[in-house]
Amino acid sequence: MNKKILIPTDFSKNSLNAVRYIMALYPDRACSFYLLHSYEVDPFSIRGSAYILPERGHEPHDIAQRETEEKFRIFLKELSVFTTNTEHRITTIVTFETLLKAAKEAVAKQDIDMIVMGTKGMTGATTLLFGTNAIKLMEGVTECPVLAVPEHLEIKPPKEIVFPTDYKGPYKKRDLVYMINIAEKHKSNICVLHIKKSEQLTRNQIEGKALLESILTNVDHSFHELNTVGVQDGITGFIESRNSDMIAFTNQKHSFFSNLFSKPLVKKLGYYSKVPVLVLKHSK
């Protein structure tokens, strides 16, 4: 079955690296890659207090369109060096919408399976870990998984995927299927990591752990616990000590993910700029 993947791009090297990474993740599978560039004209035309987006046929729009088409031509030429699978098809999308809105529209229109985005990491004191756009997609897109790929990442198959959890679930196999499929394809081990807040698991946590184990039955997996450490320090140390290749979260309100990626923690989790982060959708 053809997999449809949306990749926002700003034509940077880390954006190119993200495309290379996802192509390597599915090297022998038929995939349709939709490269999305959300173009912002600066400045917008202003009438009163309203911002008016440039329309087709107007000079700002047409100039931006031509510039973007040329950038895509160069970008695709660079990418062609790394593409070897004839079943990897590429389509380009240019829009004047905000990135989040454009991504959600593309997901709905093209029935996208996954969004993949290159990230620049921490490049300055005021720069968020994954950048504002990546954070918006990771938090705002609930229709499909989002994979954030850091710059300078070595292109290699993930052999270990860390899945931090508090065991509170609820877990559904359809929510975890992308992580499981990646693990099956690359013979990866899924490390389920629980950072203990108390000595004993609650009944709800025990049931959640058992359900998770049943879902992961057909893939290599292991369970790990850490004591008396903070969440961000625990995960960081675990990944660093094992040279893990990917981290996966389930994105739902009031979840482990949302607590982990609250703004104070985002600025502290510097190590995550070195490993891809897979944000799995949560179905109700």
TrEMBL record:
Occurrences of domain UspA (ranges): 1-150
CDD domains per the UniProt record, alphabetical: USP-like (cd00293)
InterPro entries in the record: Rossmann-like_a/b/a_fold, Universal_stress_UspA, UspA
Protein name, as recorded: Universal stress protein
Family: Belongs to the universal stress protein A family.
SUPFAM superfamilies to which the protein is assigned, alphabetical: Adenine nucleotide alpha hydrolases-like
Organism: Maribacter chungangensis
